[in-house]
Each structure stands twice: as C-alpha cells, then as structure tokens.
Design brief:
The chain is 25% helix and 23% strand. By secondary structure, it is an alpha/beta fold. It folds into two domains: 61-260, 3-Layer(aba) Sandwich (Rossmann fold); 280-303 and 316-444 and 484-584, TIM Barrel, CATH 3.20.20.70. The chain has an eight-stranded mixed beta sheet. A hairpin with a 3-residue loop joins strand 12 and strand 13. Bound molecules: ligand 1PR. It comes from Arabis nemorensis. Its EC number is 3.5.1.2. Substrate binds at residues 374, 510. It holds the Pfam family GATase.
Length: 590
Amino acid sequence: MEATAAPFSSIVSSRQNLPSSSIRPSSPTSLFLSRKKNLGYVNLKFKSRLSVHASSTSDSVVTLLDYGAGNVRSIRNALRHLGLSIKDVQTPEDILNADRLVFPGVGAFAPAMDVLNKTGMAEALCTYIENDRPFLGICLGLQLLFESSEENGPVKGLGVIPGTVGRFDSSAGITVPHIGWNALQVGKGSEILDDVGNRHVYFVHSYRAIPSNENKEWISSTCNYGESFISSIRRGNVHAVQFHPEKSGETGLSVLRRFLDPKLPATQKPMEGKASKLAKRVIACLDVRSNDKGDLVVTKGDQYDVREQSNENEVRNLGKPVDLAGQYYKDGADEISFLNITGFRDFPLGDLPMIQVLRYTSENVFVPLTVGGGIRDFTDASGRYYSSLEVAAEYFRSGADKISIGSDAVYAAEEFMKSGVKTGKSSLEQISRVYGNQAVVVSIDPRRVYVNHPDDVPYKVIRLTNPGPNGEEYAWYQCTVSGGREGRPIGAYELAKAVEELGAGEILLNCIDCDGQGKGFDIDLVKLISDSVGIPVIASSGAGTPQHFSEVFETTNASAALAAGIFHRKEVPIQTVKEHLLEKSIEVRI
Ligand code: 1PR
C-alpha cells in the first residue's frame, strides 16, 4: 500500500490557499470527480454555491452530523467522555460554520444519500471537505465519500474520492459481515492513527472500498479481510475511518483525541500489540432480570434455572448490570451482551430499567453492546400496538449496537421453512432491512435430543463425538422458545440456515445442556453450525476454563466465544482467558 498525506489544498484550486474564513467558492471546483455516464450520473462538475465561514466556536465544541438514520449515541458518549460538548447540525449552514465536523454514517448507503441530497447537506459537506476543513467520517461516513456504492445500487455517493464501494466476497471463505477486531496496515502521514500501531480496532460492515491507483493518495491505512480494503483515508484535515473508534476501547478513543487535537505530540513509543488479522472475540454475557424485590440484577443459572436452591427460592443475584459491564470493559471484554431474560413475557419497553442500563453502560463502555429479550411485535394492555422495529429502535437509541432476537426468530424461521416465502414482515427481516444485518443477532437456545438413527427425525442429526448418557451415538438439536421452556419443531441447523436467509448478521449459539455446567462448549454443535452458515457464530454455554476457549477456536469456525458464570463468579478473569489464547497462538485483542 502506498500511503501519502498530501495536503488537501494541493489538489484543489488555488483559492483554497486562502484562509478558510475568506473562502467563498462561486465557480465549479476541480475537486469533484467527473461523474461517469455508465453509472447514470448527470452532472459533470459539482457546482458549489455555498461558502465556508470562520466560526468562533470554542475548542471544546465539536459539530456532529446526525441525519437521523439510527443510533449515534455511542459517538456522542465517546466525544462527551473526551470532554467535548456537541453541536448538532440542523441546517447546511451549520456544516459550513463548523470548526470540526464528525460524520458517523449509520444505516444503508442509499437512504443516507437521499437524506443528504434532500436536505442540502450533501452540497454543504462537499464544500466543507473541498475547503480542507477538519472532518472525520466514520464507517458509512467514509463510504459516502466515494463515487458510488453497490449497496442496493449502484447508488451515487458524494464523489469526493475515486472508486466504488462493494460487498465483501463471501466466496473467498470469509464470514460476512466483517464483524470484530482487526489489524490495520498503517501508512505514513496518518497522524490520527498514531497510537493505533499494531493494535486491533473494531469493524462491523458488509461493504468496503478497494484501494486503486486512482485513490491511493487518499489512503492512510488498509485492512486485510479476505482481501485488502481501505480502512482509513486522510488528506490534509479530512479524515475518515471504516472502523468504529467509538467502539474500539482506549485505542479508538485515542483516534478521536488526535482528530480533535492535532497538536498532540507524536507518539514516541507505539502502544504494545501484535495485531495482524481478525481477532477471536471473548464476550461477557449478562443475563438480566428483576428480582423479587423489583431490582434489576445480573443473574445466572444452570441450564436456564436462575433461582437459588434455598427455601426462599430467590433469583440468584450476581451484581448490578451497569457496574459489572463497566468492570468487564476494563478487564478486556471485546463485547458485552445483555439478555433481558424475562423479555419474552414482559414487554421490554415497559421495562425501563433495562433501557436505563443500556444508557448508563454506554456512557463509559466503549466496546460493542448487544441487547436481547422480548424483541417482537406487542400490543399493551391499553391496546397500543408496538412493532418490533419500535422496540429495536428504542434499544438502539439507548446505546445498543446490536439487538438479539430469540423466540421471534424461531417462529419466523418455522414460517419461512413452511412457506418458502420471505414475507418481509418478521422482526428479523424488518430490523435488518432498516439497520443492516450486521445489527441483528439471532440467539438460538437448542437442547440436545438423542436418537437411535439419523433417519428417525426430519432434522439434521449428527454423530456425537462423546456418546450420550445411555451410549446414544446420534442427536439433533431442538430449538426452544421462551427461555428454553418450550421445544419447537425445528433444529438448530435448520434455524441457522433460515435466519441467515432472513437477514441475521450473526448467531449467538447457546446450548441448554451445557449452560452453567463449566464442562466446555458443545463442540459438535458449534462445529455443525459454524460450518453451515456464512455469518459469524458466537459459541456460548459451558465455558469453565481458559482451555475451553482455545478448544472451541481450534476445533470449530466460531468467531467468538461467550461466557457468563465463570466471569460473574470471578473464577477465571477475562485477561487469563486471553493470555491463554495468545499462548496457543490464537489472535486476540489485548
Ligand atoms: O426469546 O427474544 O425474548 O430472548 C430471550 C433471550 O434470553 C434469549 O437469548 C435466551 O437465550 C435468553 N434467556 C431466556 N431465559 C434465560 C434464563 O437464563 N432463564 N438466558 C436466558 C440464557 C444463556 C446464555 C448464557 C450462556 C453462558 N442465557 O446466554 O449466558 O449459556 O453461560 P455459562 O457461561 O455460565 O455457561 P427472546
């Protein structure tokens, strides 16, 4: 990769050398690329009629372009954590008047461009960038700078950078979306990445821009995932990153800090780290519910029974959700999952404490947060109907990066397998259409059912590595709903394939038989599912020792491993798990 950081002004017309306060472009600029006819573009040059003004905003203010397409709470929280106050863009003028503009693109490419064009923000953004004003685009905020995207397209982008954005090629043997912590190949002159060095940063996306001769002068880093793609661009004061600095822990916060304060001295000694590829993730899971006193607690049971075996039979209380999540973040968890385990019977939006848990946690925890439990259509006692999309939207607004669907995904998969028709109406389909499939996890709660012969049931049966208690050699994995209370006529294999088709971006694979047992993950099950789908699989249930993590990563294609009990009971710290994985040459984020 060639990475140069020519000042932006060197490629724009000479009037850009004037102080920004006096810049008043009035003629077509040379910056914007000629739009190619075969992409259906109409105008050949972007005619800017806007002006960039000097502003008297203080150093502690950053302008945020939130065009209302989804959750930008995480970036708000990260900026506030760094001591900044946020000015929201209301009009195109606010962009032109910004001292520093952060653009965290969310949602899909086409609707984002649509909003930007209709509101006049697209033109203001182009003018702002053209004038080399401090800019940081994040994720879609990087992709929109390119000429076009294949996402439901081709769809025309802002056209600042030559090139198109396309989907990762899953036939290259990679899981898509690209979810997780990956390494960068950082070029010269990419100061905001100064502290990243060889540490991992967090990506979550299915589309990417490819390096080419035409855009090489923009590239400040690339990332390998089946192929090399553009992970950041930089020209003068204009920066954009494909990864999420607001979700990349302390490393990511350093990227924001350096963008906000370019005068920070260069790093003398790069932070330690040996990132070279996508790391295996270690996830802490918090099963959350109200106890009998009405307090929201983290609980944990064996095989989904969370009540103590005492006379009082109370809900096991392992701590406060916000405190524990904060602790796991500090301990190095790569992701935190909250499962509202009574969500299947209580309406989650009535469960305001859970929303509060997310809000408070996301203020200080800068790794991805997933929340599940009760995501479905619902009519409350007063007859008010809530769509699953509204429930998910509230979770996203409150700080969730991904939502996890359990029971409702089982019903949707059963329906789909029966009819072969995607109705587009299931919660899974609706939420993934609006927020992207990378934002939708399906949580599977299967139970092992032994059979004598593979033809005994119409589900995928496997030959077990370790025979059952009565020497059974075969089993299938029956999906359950309502927290394991009801078995359904569908296997984990069939469900996984169906939900992938319906738009799931990731699978959280529990195993009721192994839950809380501490005897290791169900390797047969994890292998079966992770070999059958092209989306990432999180192995869950049964972790008791660090060796169980290396075993699941060495013998299956799981992308992540999740545990609850051993972390809550402080039997095995997250760092010990990671050190063990490193000893076994399994790449993890440190
Ligand atoms: O069906 O969409 O409302 O989602 C409900 C969600 O809550 C599902 O993801 C379901 O797995 C979860 N759930 C429901 N009841 C319980 C319960 O414990 N009574 N928790 C429950 C299940 C399973 C794992 C657990 C691992 C690791 N928790 O997530 O954390 O098994 O545990 P371990 O490391 O201690 O073995 P919906």
